[in-house]
Design a protein that fits this description.
The protein is mainly α and 126 residues long. It is 79% helix and 0% strand.
């Protein structure tokens, strides 16, 4: 269950960050964006401290947090990828299709990580 929880936290934090970056129109406030990105990058370390101090057994589930960050980034730009697929420019159509294929592959890999212990056992141990 810790795999699902840390993945969900990564998706949540990644979604908030992506929305903040997309809504930023005045890049003179880039310091706010950088602080938000650092907050996301460093917020995953809390679980390492919990693991060490309290002796909980998160183990390899800690690695699902960055997976959730990356997965949310892919899915938040899905609307733009669909728009690119419909664009008359062939280069944008290729980029759109590659993005959609990447989303499908990433979703399959994440589901395999969550649901199949045999796939998780193939990964290196921490």
């Amino acid at each position: 269950m810790s795999y699902v929880g840390l993945l969900a936290l990564g998706i949540f934090v990644g979604t908030l960050l992506c929305i903040a970056v997309r809504k930023t129109t005045n890049w003179s406030d880039a310091v706010k964006v950088i602080i938000a990105l650092l907050g996301a990058a460093l917020s995953g370390t809390v679980f390492t401290f919990i693991d060490k101090i309290l002796g909980s057994t998160l183990g390899n589930a800690v690695f699902m947090y960055p997976v959730g960050l990356a997965w949310s980034l892919l899915w938040l730009f899905a609307e733009q990828a669909i728009g690119n697929v419909r664009d008359p420019n062939i280069n944008l159509r290729i980029v759109g299709w590659l993005h959609i294929i990447g989303m499908v592959v990433a979703t399959v890999l994440v589901l395999m990580l969550l649901l199949w212990d045999g796939f998780r056992n193939l990964l290196p141990r921490s």
